[in-house]
Amino acid sequence: RKEVEQDPGPFNVPEGATVAFNCTYSNSASQSFFWYRQDCRKEPKLLMSVYSSGNEDGRFTAQLNRASQYISLLIRDSKLSDSATYLCVVNIVTGGFKTIFGAGTRLFVKA
Amino acid sequence: DTAVSQTPKYLVTQMGNDKSIKCEQNLGHDTMYWYKQDSKKFLKIMFSYNNKELIINETVPNRFSPKSPDKAHLNLHINSLELGDSAVYFCASSQDLGRTEAFFGQGTRLTVV
Q1: What confidence score (pLDDT) does residue B1 get?
Q2: In angstroms, what separates the C-alpha of B42 from chain A's closest C-alpha?
Protein backbone atom coordinates (compact mmCIF):
# COMPACT_ATOMS: atom_id res chain seq x y z
CA ARG A 1 0.00 0.00 0.00
CA LYS A 2 1.30 3.44 -0.92
CA GLU A 3 1.93 5.81 1.97
CA VAL A 4 -0.27 8.47 0.40
CA GLU A 5 -2.95 7.54 -2.09
CA GLN A 6 -5.13 9.69 -4.29
CA ASP A 7 -7.56 8.94 -7.07
CA PRO A 8 -5.63 10.08 -10.17
CA GLY A 9 -8.82 11.08 -11.97
CA PRO A 10 -9.25 12.85 -14.22
CA PHE A 11 -12.30 14.57 -12.85
CA ASN A 12 -14.17 16.34 -15.64
CA VAL A 13 -16.73 18.79 -14.26
CA PRO A 14 -18.71 21.71 -15.65
CA GLU A 15 -18.19 25.23 -14.42
CA GLY A 16 -20.09 25.87 -11.24
CA ALA A 17 -19.97 22.27 -10.07
CA THR A 18 -18.84 21.13 -6.65
CA VAL A 19 -16.08 18.56 -6.67
CA ALA A 20 -14.41 16.65 -3.84
CA PHE A 21 -11.08 14.85 -3.66
CA ASN A 22 -9.99 12.41 -1.01
CA CYS A 23 -6.54 11.36 0.01
CA THR A 24 -5.66 8.52 2.35
CA TYR A 25 -2.44 8.07 4.28
CA SER A 26 -1.10 4.98 5.97
CA ASN A 27 1.30 6.30 8.63
CA SER A 28 -0.43 7.20 11.87
CA ALA A 29 2.59 9.33 12.82
CA SER A 30 1.66 11.79 10.09
CA GLN A 31 1.72 15.22 11.61
CA SER A 32 0.94 17.93 9.11
CA PHE A 33 -1.09 17.92 5.94
CA PHE A 34 -1.37 20.14 2.91
CA TRP A 35 -3.04 20.45 -0.44
CA TYR A 36 -0.90 21.73 -3.27
CA ARG A 37 -1.92 22.69 -6.76
CA GLN A 38 0.25 22.06 -9.80
CA ASP A 39 -0.50 23.51 -13.20
CA CYS A 40 0.85 21.87 -16.34
CA ARG A 41 4.63 22.35 -16.62
CA LYS A 42 4.73 24.51 -13.50
CA GLU A 43 5.90 24.06 -9.95
CA PRO A 44 3.59 22.89 -7.15
CA LYS A 45 2.13 25.73 -5.11
CA LEU A 46 0.53 25.56 -1.72
CA LEU A 47 -3.26 25.72 -1.92
CA MET A 48 -3.98 25.31 1.76
CA SER A 49 -2.86 23.64 4.93
CA VAL A 50 -5.24 21.14 6.49
CA TYR A 51 -6.09 21.53 10.16
CA SER A 52 -7.72 19.07 12.50
CA SER A 53 -10.76 21.26 12.90
CA GLY A 54 -11.16 21.67 9.16
CA ASN A 55 -10.59 24.94 7.40
CA GLU A 56 -12.05 26.99 4.60
CA ASP A 57 -10.55 29.47 2.19
CA GLY A 58 -13.11 30.99 -0.11
CA ARG A 59 -14.49 28.23 -2.34
CA PHE A 60 -12.07 25.65 -0.91
CA THR A 61 -12.67 23.54 2.19
CA ALA A 62 -10.18 21.07 3.61
CA GLN A 63 -10.97 18.39 6.18
CA LEU A 64 -8.83 16.00 8.16
CA ASN A 65 -10.07 12.74 9.62
CA ARG A 66 -7.30 11.28 11.78
CA ALA A 67 -9.31 8.26 12.86
CA SER A 68 -9.83 7.13 9.28
CA GLN A 69 -6.55 8.64 8.11
CA TYR A 70 -7.78 10.68 5.22
CA ILE A 71 -7.93 14.28 4.15
CA SER A 72 -10.33 15.83 1.73
CA LEU A 73 -10.58 18.90 -0.45
CA LEU A 74 -13.90 20.35 -1.54
CA ILE A 75 -14.09 22.92 -4.32
CA ARG A 76 -17.38 24.77 -4.69
CA ASP A 77 -18.52 26.75 -7.73
CA SER A 78 -15.69 25.43 -9.91
CA LYS A 79 -13.99 27.88 -12.26
CA LEU A 80 -12.15 27.14 -15.48
CA SER A 81 -9.01 28.34 -13.73
CA ASP A 82 -9.34 25.55 -11.15
CA SER A 83 -8.21 23.06 -13.80
CA ALA A 84 -4.96 21.63 -12.46
CA THR A 85 -3.51 18.66 -10.60
CA TYR A 86 -4.15 18.66 -6.87
CA LEU A 87 -1.48 17.06 -4.72
CA CYS A 88 -2.05 15.74 -1.24
CA VAL A 89 1.02 16.13 0.99
CA VAL A 90 1.72 14.48 4.31
CA ASN A 91 4.62 15.25 6.66
CA ILE A 92 5.67 12.48 8.97
CA VAL A 93 7.81 13.50 11.92
CA THR A 94 8.81 10.57 14.07
CA GLY A 95 12.46 10.32 14.99
CA GLY A 96 13.27 11.40 11.48
CA PHE A 97 11.28 13.35 8.98
CA LYS A 98 9.57 12.46 5.76
CA THR A 99 7.43 14.41 3.30
CA ILE A 100 5.26 12.29 1.06
CA PHE A 101 3.47 13.65 -1.98
CA GLY A 102 0.48 11.89 -3.41
CA ALA A 103 0.52 11.23 -7.13
CA GLY A 104 -2.09 13.92 -7.65
CA THR A 105 -5.66 14.17 -8.86
CA ARG A 106 -6.26 15.84 -12.20
CA LEU A 107 -9.21 18.20 -12.49
CA PHE A 108 -10.62 19.59 -15.72
CA VAL A 109 -13.30 22.24 -15.43
CA LYS A 110 -15.18 22.82 -18.66
CA ALA A 111 -17.36 25.67 -19.84
CA ASP B 1 11.42 39.01 -6.35
CA THR B 2 11.42 35.25 -6.91
CA ALA B 3 11.38 33.45 -3.56
CA VAL B 4 13.01 30.21 -4.73
CA SER B 5 14.95 30.43 -7.96
CA GLN B 6 16.75 27.68 -9.77
CA THR B 7 18.87 27.67 -12.89
CA PRO B 8 18.87 26.62 -15.57
CA LYS B 9 15.22 26.21 -16.47
CA TYR B 10 16.02 23.78 -19.28
CA LEU B 11 19.03 21.52 -19.63
CA VAL B 12 19.68 19.19 -22.55
CA THR B 13 22.83 17.14 -22.37
CA GLN B 14 24.39 13.94 -23.56
CA MET B 15 24.72 10.73 -21.62
CA GLY B 16 27.87 10.56 -19.56
CA ASN B 17 28.16 14.29 -19.00
CA ASP B 18 28.32 16.01 -15.62
CA LYS B 19 25.96 18.87 -14.91
CA SER B 20 24.88 21.13 -12.05
CA ILE B 21 21.63 22.81 -11.13
CA LYS B 22 21.70 25.81 -8.82
CA CYS B 23 19.09 26.87 -6.32
CA GLU B 24 18.76 29.92 -4.13
CA GLN B 25 16.04 31.03 -1.73
CA ASN B 26 15.57 34.51 -0.31
CA LEU B 27 12.92 33.59 2.25
CA GLY B 28 15.31 33.12 5.16
CA HIS B 29 14.23 29.49 5.47
CA ASP B 30 16.30 26.93 7.34
CA THR B 31 15.42 23.92 5.21
CA MET B 32 15.93 23.23 1.53
CA TYR B 33 15.06 20.24 -0.63
CA TRP B 34 15.55 18.66 -4.01
CA TYR B 35 12.66 16.80 -5.59
CA LYS B 36 12.45 14.79 -8.79
CA GLN B 37 9.28 14.61 -10.86
CA ASP B 38 9.41 11.91 -13.49
CA SER B 39 7.40 11.39 -16.65
CA LYS B 40 4.54 9.90 -14.64
CA LYS B 41 4.39 13.17 -12.71
CA PHE B 42 5.18 11.52 -9.41
CA LEU B 43 7.05 13.92 -7.12
CA LYS B 44 9.69 12.32 -4.91
CA ILE B 45 12.02 13.88 -2.41
CA MET B 46 15.70 13.29 -3.07
CA PHE B 47 17.53 15.33 -0.43
CA SER B 48 16.72 17.57 2.47
CA TYR B 49 19.13 20.00 4.11
CA ASN B 50 18.53 21.79 7.38
CA ASN B 51 20.91 24.61 8.26
CA LYS B 52 23.38 23.37 5.66
CA GLU B 53 23.36 19.83 7.05
CA LEU B 54 22.13 16.84 5.11
CA ILE B 55 19.09 15.42 6.87
CA ILE B 56 17.55 13.15 4.31
CA ASN B 57 19.10 11.23 1.50
CA GLU B 58 16.50 9.04 -0.07
CA THR B 59 17.54 6.14 -2.24
CA VAL B 60 19.32 8.22 -4.83
CA PRO B 61 22.34 7.07 -6.85
CA ASN B 62 25.57 8.52 -5.53
CA ARG B 63 26.05 10.18 -8.91
CA PHE B 64 23.81 12.84 -7.40
CA SER B 65 25.62 15.06 -4.92
CA PRO B 66 24.00 18.06 -3.27
CA LYS B 67 26.08 20.92 -1.96
CA SER B 68 24.91 23.61 0.41
CA PRO B 69 27.47 26.43 0.71
CA ASP B 70 25.10 28.36 2.97
CA LYS B 71 21.50 28.24 4.18
CA ALA B 72 20.22 30.12 1.16
CA HIS B 73 21.75 27.83 -1.47
CA LEU B 74 21.43 24.17 -2.32
CA ASN B 75 23.01 23.05 -5.57
CA LEU B 76 22.68 19.66 -7.20
CA HIS B 77 25.54 18.12 -9.11
CA ILE B 78 24.97 15.07 -11.26
CA ASN B 79 27.82 12.93 -12.59
CA SER B 80 27.75 10.53 -15.52
CA LEU B 81 24.22 11.41 -16.59
CA GLU B 82 21.99 8.57 -17.72
CA LEU B 83 18.85 8.52 -19.88
CA GLY B 84 16.76 7.68 -16.81
CA ASP B 85 17.83 10.91 -15.15
CA SER B 86 15.58 12.82 -17.55
CA ALA B 87 12.94 14.49 -15.39
CA VAL B 88 11.97 17.81 -13.88
CA TYR B 89 14.00 18.66 -10.79
CA PHE B 90 12.45 21.01 -8.26
CA CYS B 91 14.22 22.85 -5.52
CA ALA B 92 12.12 23.88 -2.52
CA SER B 93 12.50 25.49 0.87
CA SER B 94 10.53 25.64 4.09
CA GLN B 95 10.79 27.45 7.39
CA ASP B 96 11.56 24.27 9.28
CA LEU B 97 11.76 20.57 8.78
CA GLY B 98 8.49 18.76 8.39
CA ARG B 99 5.92 21.10 9.87
CA THR B 100 5.47 23.98 7.48
CA GLU B 101 4.66 24.24 3.83
CA ALA B 102 7.34 24.19 1.17
CA PHE B 103 7.87 26.79 -1.53
CA PHE B 104 9.06 25.48 -4.85
CA GLY B 105 11.31 26.83 -7.55
CA GLN B 106 10.09 26.81 -11.12
CA GLY B 107 11.83 23.53 -11.90
CA THR B 108 14.67 22.45 -14.16
CA ARG B 109 13.63 20.25 -17.06
CA LEU B 110 16.58 17.92 -17.65
CA THR B 111 16.71 15.91 -20.84
CA VAL B 112 19.49 13.41 -21.32
CA VAL B 113 20.01 12.29 -24.92
Answers
A1: 61
A2: 5
Q: How far is CA A59 from CA A5, A55, A78, in A?
A: 24, 11, 8
Option in A31, A42, A43 nearest B98 (CB): A31
Which residues on A lie below 8 Å from B55 (Cβ)? 96-97
Taking CA atoms, B57 is separated from A69, A96, A98, B19, B61, in Å, by 27, 12, 11, 19, 10
Distance CA B104, CA A17 (A): 30
% of chain B beyond a pLDDT of 70: 97
- Tell if the CB–CB gap between B56 and A96 is shorter than 8 Å: yes
Structure confidence at residue A65 as a pLDDT band (50, 70, 90): very high
Q: Does B47 touch chain A (CB under 8 A)?
A: no
Is B59 a residue whose pLDDT tops 90? no
